Automatic annotation (TrEMBL), chain A:
Keywords: Cell membrane, Membrane, Transmembrane, Transmembrane helix
Organism in which the protein naturally occurs: Pseudomonas duriflava
InterPro entries associated with the record: ABC_transp_permease (IPR001851), LivHM_N (IPR021807), LivM-like (IPR043428)
Taxonomic placement: Bacteria, Pseudomonadati, Pseudomonadota, Gammaproteobacteria, Pseudomonadales
Protein name: Branched-chain amino acid transport system permease protein
Top-level taxon in the UniProt lineage: Bacteria
UniProtKB/TrEMBL annotation, chain B:
Descriptive protein name: Branched-chain amino acid transport system ATP-binding protein
Domain ABC transporter stretches: 6-254
Organism: Pseudomonas duriflava
Phylogenetic lineage: Bacteria, Pseudomonadati, Pseudomonadota, Gammaproteobacteria, Pseudomonadales
Protein family membership: Belongs to the ABC transporter superfamily.
InterPro entries linked to this entry: AAA+_ATPase, ABC_AA/LPS_Transport, ABC_transporter-like_ATP-bd, ABC_transporter-like_CS, BCA_ABC_TP_C, P-loop_NTPase
Amino acid sequence: MSSTPFSKQLKTAVFSALLVVAVAYPVLGLKLTTVGINLEVHGASATTLWIIAAAALLMFIWQLVRERIPLPRRTRSTGALPITRVGARLTEPATQRWLILGLVCVALIWPFFGSRGAVDIATLILIYVMLGLGLNIVVGLAGLLDLGYVGFYAVGAYSYALLSHYYGLGFWICLPIAGMMAALFGFLLGFPVLRLRGDYLAIVTLGFGEIIRILLRNLTSITGGPNGISGIDKPTLFGLSLDRRAPEGMQTFHEFFGIAYNSNHKVIFLYLIALLLVLLTLFVINRLLRMPIGRAWEALREDEIACRALGLNPTLIKLSAFTLGACFAGFAGSFFAARQGLVSPESFTFIESAIILAIVVLGGMGSQLGVILAAIVMILLPELMREFSEYRMLMFGALMVLMMIWRPQGLLPMQRPHLELRK
Amino acid sequence: MSQPILQAKGLTMRFGGLLAVNGVNITVSEKQVVSLIGPNGAGKTTVFNCLTGFYQPSGGEILLRGEPIHGLPGHRIARKGVVRTFQNVRLFKEMTAVENLLVAQHRHLNTSFLAGLLKTPAFRRREAEAMEFALHWLEQVNLTEFANRSAGNLAYGQQRRLEIARCMMTRPQLLMLDEPAAGLNPRETEDLKTLIGLLRDKHDVTVLLIEHDMHLVMSISDHIVVINQGTPLADGTPEQIRNNPDVIKAYLGEA
């Protein structure tokens, strides 16, 4: 097994150990400062230094002996763990349906007992679930790499913000408008660019996302530039405001029902709206998957030429995926604007696109339950680890790398629906 | 002889300086099996690509029942009933066999967005019919038991058969098979022959075939077109082709 010569192993081991030391310094926040002609290490206690040294030593030894320890070798050819039976059961569409049903029940009930902060974070997670599910159509099903998804999110958010700011329209009217606006943008962008494929498409969509953001920042007269638009109305419950004091001509929720004002109500209400939107998204996507168009998306991802030979119009199919994906981003965007009460171009940077894409990839392309889980992980982890906020990105990266090594197919990969044959 | 379903006149395809196909004429009559043969690199697949709209021919015209179809994009030609298979199998490998067949019926299904979202009765009925039709063809090609197996996991011969079944889903008038027997064992080739005969006789499909297996070609074809280095060499019944000195020379080299 150890076919590599010892000298080479030694070299690798030394190099790895040095790498550990080099990486450990910035990660643990040590600073090298020149004092006179000497270099001094600052910001470190003796223990930290010892830990680094120990880690380096461990790495050195590990690199030397790892070839000799007979580890249970996995078959590398498939590049994936064989899916265990429990895993397979979990990813079956029928099981997923029950799991989702269970999750929905829990999701409906818990906010009434949960803390305000938790509900707020859950709302944020739901926004990302919606975005992930939308992008899942484009990337996971149709196989179009879209790096500018946040652009449509921004279009949705600003649609509501502008309509509310200038025309005083309410959330419920603006929600479909925002979705349609985003869909329109998706359609307009998709029309010229969808003849591109793979990397080229990724670059163009990346550019699109940035253009939207920069446009929003520089159209100062309309969008307020970098300051964004603030004071956006919150959603109402059939015309009842959930604020402490209702604006002219409206009634507040607590007055109507004659209960004491509780600021938690507003948070829970927002959460429930988000949940409703997510459920709607889930329902639509589930149906889409079983519709001809859903199958056509997947077929297109697999083999565009074969699709053409069978009389499917690739441009139209791609365009529908792109437009629908954008539409869901628009919904999510308008809800985001309503929740924040403030939109600014800085909410729609490239990193948002990257996070949404990461959710899709992490969850398993095409798998809806996977996307939900991944969204929870991706949003909750940084929130839970606020104390280590400086290492957040590092953990993020590590998580990605580990996932790609151990489960390249995602947390819960998609499984094909089993079509019952009639005899 | 019945009326021609497909006619290619003076078909020419030029890639830069290379004249890949030069003035090829093909006439395919209804309910016939026509074979296109020729040595490797003769331009047979290029002819196929021109006929199905994957290439825009540089010259000549293609008529489908008298209607010009050259210059149309591939999916439009396919919708007119000219459907092809590929030299290297092009199935949707991650999808199951039956899903492959359903995708191919896309055009015949209710693709309305709302109908699908609401699962209207009309939508369900269409889906059920599509399923029925897919099952019928799975039976025809002996793949019923593999219906829910992903297409990529089928054996090679089964994949070939599935590809033909998938073409049949589009209710084609003209089925174009690009080397369907490549990589099949003798028994599978024999099955294929039966299948092609069945398509012609029972399902009224016209078949245009590229094939290297001369035994298959000679036994099943009604008509054979030979091309060599992009130019037409001979044209006739299997008997005529078998005895044509030019064809023998092209295949075996000068004696």
